[in-house]
Structure formats: structure tokens, C-alpha cells
Write a structure and sequence with these properties.
Number of strands: 0
Order of helices and strands: HHHHHHHHH
Distance between the termini: 7 Å
Structural class: mainly alpha
CATH superfamily: DhaL domain
Number of helices: 9
Low-confidence stretches: none
Mean pLDDT: 93
CATH class: Mainly Alpha
Radius of gyration: 16 Å
Shape: globular
Number of domains: 1
Strand content: under 5%
Helix content: 55-70%
Length: 214
């Protein structure tokens, strides 16, 4: 039974995230049309294409090198702040796994904590602001809680995915404080945030990939 995340599992996780975003591209675009310009789905799909290319072209089995490649790839996507922010997330994750060739629950939690810390250096958005942070922060916290309780990596990612989904759904009743939707004020309420939704989809893809691993 799978208990740790190695190179092959990390590749599977990335492909799982790619599949989830692609399958929900239209939904993400529709959500973005309520307060933005409706291109979030397209931007995320392009970003996933760049990640896929980076993963497929990677020549090293080093975890840090893989995540570094993913980070720099998605930074190159056009479409506002999405690419740079996700890039900083993956760069932080890469730094956290330097020298490691397999991740258990605790080191998987540390990987995502490193990504979150890196991202927080480049955005002032917090939980409650109706952004990707509303899914990411609870996901990382749930992952750490599960790991500290003795969960292996797959179980910890399951907990993270559930928390990310709950966080994304909670943005429905929030007023946007960042991005174009901020100008709508109270009118930004009533729909989940597209950034939080895409982050939840990424964690869902991560978790499903580990669940299906032998």
C-alpha cells in the first residue's frame, strides 16, 4: 500500500491536477465571468499545458528539479497574476523538498507549507478575501493536522483536498477584496471564487492520483 510520495507519485499528482483543471475549464471560465473577464478557465488550461510539457520533458528524477521546472513553466502563462502566484507556490514547494527522494505525511505537509510561505511573500491576500488562499490555507492546515495525527501521505492529501473544497465553497458568500471582482463590492457575493475553485481542483487531482496509485 502506498504510504510515501516519490518521483513517480509526484508526476502522477501533477497529471491528476492537470486533468481536473482541464475537465472543469468551462466552469472556471463561467465563475470568472461574474466578476472578472471570464478567462480564468482558459488561463488555467494553458498553464496546465505548460506544466504537462515541463513534466514530460524533465530529465531528472530529483523532486526539487521537477517542481522547479513546473514553477518556471507556469510562470510563463499569460493571464494576470495566476501564473506568477502558482509559480511562487511551486518554487516554495521545490525548496522544501531539496535533498529528499520520498515524502511521508510529515514531509509532504512541509512541502506544501513551504509553498504557502513562498506565496505569502508575494500576496497580501488572506483567508476571507475570496481568493485562492481560501482553498490553499485550509488545505495546508488540514494536511499538517492529518500528518501530525499519523496519517500517511495519501490520507493527508485526502484531508487537504476535502478542506480545499470546503474553503472554495465558502467563498460563495464572501465579498472580493482582490482582483477585478473587488470593484463589485457586495455584488461579488453569490458565486465561488474561480481562483479558490481551481486550487481545490488541483488538490482534488493530487489526492485522486495518490488514491489510484498501486
Amino acid at each position: 500500500m502506498l504510504e510515501t510520495i516519490g518521483h513517480d507519485e509526484l508526476v502522477a499528482m501533477l497529471h491528476g491536477a492537470i486533468e481536473q483543471v482541464r475537465a472543469n475549464q468551462q466552469t472556471l471560465g463561467k465563475l470568472d465571468s461574474f466578476g472578472g473577464d471570464g478567462d480564468h478557465g482558459t488561463t488555467m488550461a494553458r498553464g496546465m499545458g505548460l506544466i504537462e510539457k515541463a513534466v514530460d520533458e524533465a530529465t531528472s528524477r530529483d523532486l526539487k528539479a521537477l517542481l522547479d521546472g513546473v514553477a518556471w513553466a507556469i510562470m510563463g502563462v499569460d493571464g494576470g497574476a495566476t501564473g506568477p502566484l502558482l509559480g511562487m507556490l511551486f518554487l516554495g514547494m521545490a525548496e522544501a523538498v531539496e535533498g529528499k527522494d520520498a515524502l511521508d505525511g510529515a514531509t509532504a505537509a512541509a512541502m506544501f507549507e513551504g509553498g504557502l510561505a513562498s506565496l505569502q511573500k508575494h500576496t497580501k491576500a488572506q483567508v476571507g478575501d475570496k481568493t485562492m488562499m481560501d482553498a490553499l490555507v485550509p488545505a495546508v492546515e488540514a494536511l499538517r493536522h492529518a500528518a501530525d495525527a499519523g496519517a500517511d501521505a495519501p490520507a493527508a492529501l485526502e484531508a487537504a483536498a476535502a478542506a480545499a473544497d470546503q474553503g472554495a465553497q465558502a467563498t460563495t458568500d464572501m465579498q472580493a477584496r482582490f482582483g477585478r471582482a473587488r470593484s463589485l463590492g457586495e455584488g461579488s457575493k453569490g458565486h465561488p471564487d474561480p481562483g479558490a475553485t481551481s486550487m481545490a481542483l488541483i488538490f482534488k487531482g493530487f489526492a485522486q492520483a495518490l488514491r489510484s496509485s498501486p
